[in-house]
Amino acid sequence: MANPTIVEPTIFELASPGRTGVTFPASDVPAADSLPKNLLRSDLPLPELAEVDVVRHYMHLSKFNYSVDSGFYPLGSCTMKYNPKIDEDTCRLPGFVHTHPLQPIETVQGNLALMYTLQEWLKEISGFAAVTLQPAAGAHGEFTGVLIMRAYHKSRGDHKRTKMIVPDSAHGTNPASAGMLGMSVVVIPSDERGNVDLEKLKAACDDTVVGMMLTNPNTLGMFDEHVEEIVKIVHDCGGLMYGDGANLNALLGIVRPGDLGFDVMHFNLHKTFAVPHGGGGPGSGPVGVAERLADFLPEPLVGILEEGDDEQPPLFGFVKPEKSIGRMKAFHGHFGGGLVRSFTYIAMHGPDGLKDVSQYAVLNANYLQARLRGTYTIPYDRICMHEFVAEGRFEGSDVRALDIAKRLMDYNFHPPTNYFPLIVHEALMIEPTETENKDTLDAFADALIKIADEAKSSPDLLHNAPANTPFGRMDEVKAARELVLCCWLPENYEQLA
Amino acid sequence: MTYIPISPKERDAMLKTIGVKSLDDLFEAIPAKHRFPQLDLPPALTEMEAAAELADIANSNENIRGDLVSFLGAGMYNHYIPSVIDHMLRRGEFYTAYTPYQPEISQGTLQAIFEYQSLMTALTGMELSNASHYDGATAAAEAVNLAYAQFRGKRKKVVISPTVHPQYRAVIRTYTQGMELELSGDDGNADLDTKPEELAGMIDDNTSLVIVQYPDFFGRIFDYTKLIETAHSKGALVCVVANPTALALLKTPGEMGADVVVGEGQPLGLPLWYGGPSLGFFTTRKQFVHKMAGRLVGETMDSRGQRSYVLTLTAREQHIKRERATSNICSNQGLLALGSAIYMSVLGKTGMRQVAELCYQKAHYAADQLSQIDGMGLCFSDPFFHEFALCVNRPVEEVNAHLLEHGILGGYDLGQDYPALKDHMLIAVTEMNSKEEIDQLAEVLAEVSHG
Predict the structure, then answer these.
(1) What is the chain A residue with the closest CA to B300?
(2) I need a surface site. Which of A26, A61, A77, A472 has the fewest CB within 10 A?
């Protein structure tokens, strides 16, 4: 096979011996004795480049990326909304950036006040009694929540609960979180309206159930029409109700999960509260709990150590919940990149602005659903929440959801999530978010309708897509078979000089 | 302030297409008695007001660039962050992209992660790196998950050196609650003068993993080669929690034979940010790749014959393996991994070595000065890198309060985690500390000692 064309060399291939980028001042202290030789490394095979080499390289790479800043990114369940630019400035204020997590609390009252206030706001938005900001991402929040559920049952001497119920439309992280604690998973099917099948749920509920993990709206974009009954069935068997907050962008000022009887829920600050996704992270996954679970939250929480008065603000500090499950990560959560951005976002929206966010997120999804109805099969066709699922297949055609997704790139759109949820054939899961205008939604719907035509008239356009992107389809089998997971300096590197 | 780009007229046209009269009509599936709660939140701020309010909050902190001189480390370190890093990270193409699930339009992120993996592999002396975990502590906990999966849960013991960061040990305890493991050695009352070889006595045929830190929590440098040999002779794996700055200078854990090397990547050009978000790096050997959690980028070719990159071995992960996955992780610290890759690239071999050398030299000068103060002394005599335990012979809280009056952020109070080290502080010195600052620290501590 011919050698592949190199579009952009790696940073190792760009290196040249003796080039320097950032250097540091000479030492201003007397030289210390060297470490014994057996403790030193002989070689440090890192690349050598000038700053301009590095900048050009990463600029080139950035241009290969599609991003929210460049276009429509309707990934279902990912909430790829526009990220306000001011958040980038507030999270980089020197007072936030240059504070050490172990500083005495008296010197970081600003950080602690911000965290305390954000805990309070998230409680109010979700209807929970207490919130921890520590979890690093949604999945980390889920793991926290499941640990709390387990600890609650154990604290009551209830040791036989080992089963976690999840619907068949659940995110893979739900069963994986339960699996990390050795729980077994019971899957409940959805009914024809996309709701949890109540009879099957009742049959699964007994005194071995830890609880149920429910995403609501679910991954079909449907708000479960029997949510209160589900909560009651689970509570009646002594189980706890976990809410997967992945889809909270549909619910701000619309309904509070705590009011519906949920016991625990994680927030995805990187979805709902506009923390940018960063090419895959970092996220931020605070967890809210009902009163009876508050004592089990991870340590530490931010609390008021001394009440304030008219002249003095309160003294904020750390408190340890009485029966805490322990620590989820070092230090205090994703403060700078997560909490400060979301604090800014919530402060700038207020109660009415947050309700608008959800109302327009739902409006945009329903509008797109209405525009595509008739061209694409929508298996659960009713008013959706912030997202909906269509089938990416056509009668008598071998075109698949994957082909449609790739062809959308040729029209300069990011494709929707595909092949999830698993219960829809050739799923295309579309979440437009509230930050897209009608023109964009129309252009996207027009492209999808045109692609449906192409699927009939010239299916190879789809099979061979994308054609207009800098890269074509990848050979994923080759990647997994050869497992080339890193590169090095060239073998003759030292002779290159 | 709103970021919704839809006019009232457009909204009405859209409602008409949907076939409903008002926005409220879209929410009939919500139980009526809980629908549209009035949220008790402060009214919305404009951008101008929010900028001012956030600046006020930030300014009410005392930060370690303008207000305080810092000698605090204990897991996060004050290093110089070259300007170029944030210029690159602020490109919307990087920070507003999602996980690169569509490789044709995500090669920027994918190649950057591939290069990050390569740089981490070179730095640790290991064979491969994943795309990162949340932080050093959770990366260490994921090493326990890897070992647990490697032995199919049959080996029930994990030996953890008491000189692994106390918060890392706490996170491992949290993560393993459902595994019925025995965590040996995880004891703040242990004799801290014991050499690593003595941990070997705890390793048996039931041990899946041994965890040590390098340099350890007190900054000490030990060669773990012998310990690793002993562990391997019992069939156990070894995880080394390493400081990446030190690795530019020190013999690599890879060379010592480690099976997993993890650590906190914050020192590689990332801000302190009051503790996060940061970067948990995770490197290992090829034979464990299928048991390792976390994203992984591999090289391949596209349909046009171009070298390119994809997320690979995804069958290990939660969205496929569900409850049988090693971990539920479904993100990586993407943007921060990119930041650390830019740091390593722009410092290169020379700059990375220089930073490590400066840390080493300045910390040794500081140790030398401080240990000459009456009534104070170094706690250990082993070789160390850029941190050391100083006995101050009085409550650390008192000493630090005095230092703070002089604008100095003192060391970490070791008595919190180690009863035997009451009245000891852990002092960190980096390239950011000038001789003058170190001399001032010595002066004020001398005052405390005499006062």
Answers:
(1) A479
(2) A26
A497 has a pLDDT exceeding 70: no
What residues 369-428 of chain A have any CB closer than 8 A to a CB of chain B? 369-371, 383, 405-406, 409, 414-415, 420
Contacts of B37 in chain A (CB under 8 A): 127, 253, 255-256, 259
Q: Could you tell me the CATH number of the domain that includes residue A110?
A: 3.40.640.10
For residues A350 and B43, the answer to whether their CB atoms sit within 8 Å is yes
Residue A66 to residue B82, Cβ atoms within 8 A: no
Q: CATH 3.40.640.10 in chain B, residues?
A: 84-343
Q: What backbone torsions phi and psi does residue B199 show, to the nearest 5 degrees?
A: -65, -25
Which residue is listed with tokens 């014991």? B194
Strand-pairing partners, residue B390, are B378, B425
The 3-state DSSP class for residue A82 equals coil
Query: Contact A285/A268 with Cβ under 8 angstroms?
Result: yes
Which amino acid type is present at position A197? D
Instruction: Name the 3-class secondary structure at B242.
Output: strand
Number of Cβ pairs < 8 A linking chain A and chain B: 694
Helix axes B435-450, B396-405, angle to 10 degrees: 120
Q: pLDDT at position B330, please?
A: 87
Ranges of CATH 3.90.1150.10 domains, chain B:
69-81+348-450
Q: Are the Cβ atoms of A471 and B107 closer than 8 angstroms? A: yes
**Tens digits of pLDDT across chain B (451 residues):** 789 999 999 999 999 999 999 999 999 999 999 999 999 999 999 999 999 999 999 999 999 999 999 999 999 999 999 999 999 999 999 999 999 999 999 999 999 999 999 999 999 999 999 999 999 999 999 999 999 999 999 999 999 999 999 999 999 999 999 999 999 998 878 888 877 888 999 999 999 999 999 999 999 999 999 999 999 999 999 999 999 999 999 999 999 999 999 999 999 999 999 999 999 999 999 999 999 999 999 999 999 999 999 999 988 777 777 788 878 888 899 999 999 999 999 999 999 999 999 999 999 999 999 999 999 999 999 999 999 999 999 999 999 999 999 999 999 999 999 999 999 999 999 999 999 999 999 999 999 988 7
**Beta strand spans in B45-172 (E):** 69-70, 128-129, 157-160
Q: Does A367 touch chain B (CB under 8 A)?
A: yes
In a domain, residue A335? The reply is yes
The CA distance from B85 to the nearest CA of chain A, in Å, is 9
CB contact under 8 A, B298 and A484: yes
Split into its structural domains, chain A has a count of 1
In a domain, A492, yes or no: no
pTM for the predicted model, two decimal places: 0.98
Residue B340 makes CB contacts below 8 A (sequence gap 6+) with: B116, B119, B244, B265, B268, B269, B270, B279, B281
Q: Is the dihedral of CA B316, B321, B324, B327 positive or negative?
A: positive
- Please, which contacts does B27-33 make with residues 24 or more away whose CB atoms are closer than 8 Å? B27/A254, B27/A362, B28/A383, B29/A222, B29/A223, B29/A224, B29/A225, B29/A383, B30/A223, B30/A254, B30/A255, B31/A227, B31/A228, B31/A255, B31/A260
Classify domain B69-81+348-450 by CATH number.
3.90.1150.10
Residue B263 β-bridge partners: B281
Which of A20, A54, A442 should be substituted to probe chain B, the one whose Cβ sees the most B Cβ atoms within 10 Å? A54
Taking the CA of residue A237 and the nearest CA in chain B, the distance in Å comes to 22
Confirm whether A443 is domain-assigned.
no
**A467–B contact, CB cutoff 8 A:** no
Domain presence at residue A218: yes
Question: CATH second-level architecture of B84-343?
Answer: 3-Layer(aba) Sandwich (3.40)
Cα(first)–Cα(last) distance of chain A, in Å?
31
Positive or negative torsion for Cα B131, B135, B138, B144? positive
